[in-house]
From TrEMBL:
Pfam family, one: WCX
Top-level taxonomy: Bacteria, Bacillati, Cyanobacteriota, Cyanophyceae, Gomontiellales
InterPro entries for the chain: WCX_dom
Domain WCX: 238-277
Protein name: WCX domain-containing protein
């Protein structure tokens, strides 16, 4: 027995039928051998096809991937592209309320605006107060008297010289020489206000002596911060002006036994402690 059907008469402008047939053909909706506009309407009514804003809806994995892409674009300094993806997520993503709120806040507090403002202050040699929300969810205030935008490990950071040292000394008490230096993420800046005082013109730094061995002795490419680069037998000795020991240690770990910090003791002891922690983690006796 054939199914009972209802008749529906549509009044459409000239050429619309052909367009509907083209859509039906593209979506493989046919009546016999011919594309079926009626079948297309039925598919829409039965929600087998989404139209309008519903035609493009992001699932959880797609949202996660686009969020990661946004972070990578921000790290690479491509702020406008990141904001385009944020807008796409807000318009098309079925977002939980907390995530939607975060994205809305990011739109109203443009990272590019912070970058432009900081570039202006640096160019004018203007000290500024900076409110920062760190990775431990603490709000900290810094008085910045020198700053540069630096690229570390695929991300742009704001490297600063700050008056405040208490938090740095609490983390690295053995490195007071660079306690004024901070490496800050642009997306965690909450406010910037100019302040009075002197613009320093440089960071504090320490000289670190590195011995490069094996293949690295020949493959090493000099860095801008290198003060000395000489070959001593089978070893290449590099003396580097270091502003942020964290990133130096990160680099040394990548090269493993081919790169040794030989001085000063404060930085050498820091990497020793990192190695001890790793050995304990993997049940190795030192």
């Amino acid at each position: 027995m054939s199914r009972k059907k209802e008749a529906l008469t549509l009044s459409v402008p000239p050429g619309t039928k052909e367009k509907l047939e083209a859509i039906a053909r593209r979506l493989n909706i046919f009546w016999g051998k011919s594309p079926s506009p009626s079948g297309l309407v039925v598919a829409i009514a039965q929600q087998e096809l989404r139209v309008g804003s519903e035609a493009f809806n992001l699932n959880e994995q797609q949202i996660k991937a686009l969020r990661q892409a946004t972070k990578l674009l921000i790290d690479a300094g491509q702020i406008q592209e990141a904001e385009i993806i944020n807008t796409l997520l807000l318009n098309q993503g079925d977002l939980e309320a907390p995530l939607r709120q975060v994205l809305l806040q990011q739109q109203t507090r443009s990272i590019q605006a912070w970058r432009d403002r900081i570039d202006e202050l640096i160019a004018n040699r203007q000290p500024f107060r900076l409110l920062y929300h760190n990775s431990q969810r603490q709000d900290l205030e810094y008085t910045v008297r020198y700053a540069e935008v630096m690229f570390y490990e695929k991300r742009f950071y704001l490297q600063t010289w700050c008056e405040e040292t208490a938090d740095a000394l609490a983390t690295d008490p053995d490195l007071p020489e660079v306690a004024h230096n901070r490496c800050l993420r642009f997306d965690r800046i909450r406010d910037i206000q100019p302040t009075s005082g002197i613009w320093r013109g440089e960071f504090d730094s320490i000289k670190v002596y590195l011995h490069l061995k094996g293949w690295l002795a020949n493959a090493y490419e000099p860095k801008e911060a290198d003060i000395e680069n000489v070959v001593l037998g089978d070893i290449r000795q590099v003396v580097r002006r270091v502003v942020n020991p964290f990133w130096l240690i990160w680099e040394v770990f990548k090269y493993r036994a081919e790169c040794e910090i030989v001085a000063p003791d404060s930085v050498r002891d820091r990497i020793k402690q990192e190695l001890r922690t790793l050995c304990q983690l993997y049940d190795l006796e030192v």
